[in-house]
Amino acid sequence: MAPLADTLRDLLAADGDAVTLVLTGAMGQAHPIGKRDARSYIDAQRPVLLVWLGGTLDLGTLQAAADAGLPVVMVNMDDSALSPIMGFWSRGRARAILARTRYMLTVNEHAAAAFRAAGVPQARLRAGVRLEEPVSVLPYDEDDRREISDALNNRPVWLATKVTMDMVDSLIAAQRHATRRAHRLLLVVEAAQGLDGQMLVNAFNDQRLLTDRSSRTRIPQEANQVHVADSDGDLGLWLRLASVTFAGGTFSKVKAQDPFEIATLGSGLVHGPVTNPYGLRYARLDAAGAARPIADWTVLGRTVEDLLAPDRVAKLVTAGWDVASQGAEAAEIVVSQIRDAVDGIVA
């Protein structure tokens, strides 16, 4: 949970708020468990707000917070968190404590329904908004983007990230299939880390797909069918120019591309089944209809061809932005709750 606490700390600091966050379990310390330990911890730290960052609930800790008059905000809550506190003998006490919840963010509507049934007031509950580490917004040069966009002259572009040599034949097959729909289609391939871009250029040229690379020719020529992106800042640039992006690493042992890096920059996401270490993010995008998962390389060309239709890719892009931006929305909600609690003490 430390990265999530750091996210909140950074947002508060950026706004000039002098707020100290204390993370239980940090620096090798044990989490306080049970009413007595929790009350001792609260008395020692004297917090103005308790933020519960996911995980199962401890009734003793919540009771200690209630006894101390400490408001509680719960974040990233799943309905499984209720199991330890909703036993036959504790159900009534749990309902009374949950009714005091200042605000709650659940991971989905199913969890929200469970917490409403357990006593959390509807007005203090928000479903489907998850706090998570901020998405890295990849850098680019706006002058380059504008110049290349003008030179492309509405030419359709799709992008493949983290490309290794063993992907070349499959990408060639996909490009040849997709160009049946759009003969001017340009495939941009981002060379995987440590791979010499010229090796990819040679491999595509050997299969009679005219190819250049950004480290030599920054702007793709009209005659080129493939452009190898092997310069610093290329990924952030081409994610802003490509309407469709295939997330490399999702058919290989290479670490998968962070899908939120794609979703936040307005490119329609296509991916294979190997999604580690971002499996949860891919699953959320898939569930929201914000990505096109494919089982094997043979359907990549057909999928890219289908997504060249503006209305179809627009649905993916819109849904992808909604999912990827939830973290920022959740952070603002929690930060607002912290500010209100601090202001209430100061006042």
How would you describe this structure to a colleague?
It is a single chain. This protein is α/β, with parallel strands linked by helices and 347 residues long. It has 2 domains: 2-131, Rossmann fold (3-Layer(aba) Sandwich), CATH 3.40.50; 142-324, 3-Layer(aba) Sandwich (Rossmann fold). Helix content is 42%, strand content 14%. The chain is built from 14 helices and 11 strands. The chain has a 7-stranded parallel β-sheet, sandwiched between helices. Strands 1-2-3-4 form a 4-stranded parallel β-sheet, sandwiched between helices. Helix 1 (2-14) crosses helix 14. The protein starts with a helix and ends with a helix. The model has no long low-confidence stretch (mean pLDDT 91).
List keywords for this structure.
single chain, 347 residues, alpha/beta, Rossmann fold, 2 domains, 7-stranded parallel beta sheet, 4-stranded parallel beta sheet, 14 helices
